[in-house]
Amino acid sequence: MTIRLGDNAPDFEQDSSIGKLHFHEWAGNSWVVLFSHPADFTPVCTTELGLTAKLKPEFDKRNVKAIALSVDPAESHQAWISDIEETQGTVVGFPIIADEDRKVSALYDMIHPNASTTATVRTLFVIDPNKKVRLSITYPMSTGRNFDEVLRVIDALQLTDSYTVATPGNWKDGDDVIIPLTVQDPDVLKQKYPKGFTAAKPYLRVTPQPNK
């Protein structure tokens, strides 16, 4: 199954490090970062889950819940969590899905046979409170993810959901934003962008970030 942007995030029930988990019910009205890792007790994954745990205050500010997945059993996850907390100096405050039967991996197309026929690659989804998939990123097994980029994209998604703007390349929270080409009426421009804008070209109009 291929998951595309704007699709409904498939619901599921599966075992996890915190017991049986019903995904949509667990997600509630939060944004979700759902990410897979190839295996427990592996070095790159240990650093990734440690980073995710340390980002909890940043996720909380953005109404985001994190949830990880691998095809290892829940008992393995629970034992590995102790190693993560010891080596990374943090507390793992999010669940790890135990996808032994690969049900969720299949739903979210997390196993790429040319990389591994059994283990999940480093797939990551950002899912909004309406259970729509808003971002998907896939990394190879040998490359750890950039979680600063995940936060950056969540900031951009939440901003563009609230205001009629787009974000330029390398945008970070607080930077200027772009006025979409769909907004042309002069009165609407004044209403929506009271701080004004500069236009390097008619199609390239830049305005200060609305909520700053």
UniProtKB/TrEMBL annotation:
The keyword Oxidoreductase applies. GO terms for molecular function: thioredoxin peroxidase activity. Pfam families: 1-cysPrx_C, AhpC-TSA. Thiol-specific peroxidase that catalyzes the reduction of hydrogen peroxide and organic hydroperoxides to water and alcohols, respectively. Plays a role in cell protection against oxidative stress by detoxifying peroxides. The active site is at residue 45. Keywords: Antioxidant, Oxidoreductase, Peroxidase, Redox-active center. InterPro entries: AhpC/TSA (IPR000866), Peroxiredoxin (IPR050217), Peroxiredoxin_AhpC-typ (IPR024706), Peroxiredoxin_C (IPR019479), PRX_1cys (IPR045020), Thioredoxin-like_sf (IPR036249), Thioredoxin_domain (IPR013766). GO terms for biological process: cell redox homeostasis; cellular response to stress; hydrogen peroxide catabolic process; response to oxidative stress. SUPFAM superfamilies: Thioredoxin-like. It comes from Rugamonas aquatica. Residues 3-159 form the Thioredoxin domain. The keyword Oxidoreductase applies. This is Thioredoxin peroxidase. GO terms for cellular component: cytosol. The lineage of its organism: Bacteria, Pseudomonadati, Pseudomonadota, Betaproteobacteria, Burkholderiales. It comes from the Bacteria. Transmembrane segments: none annotated. Belongs to the peroxiredoxin family. Prx6 subfamily.
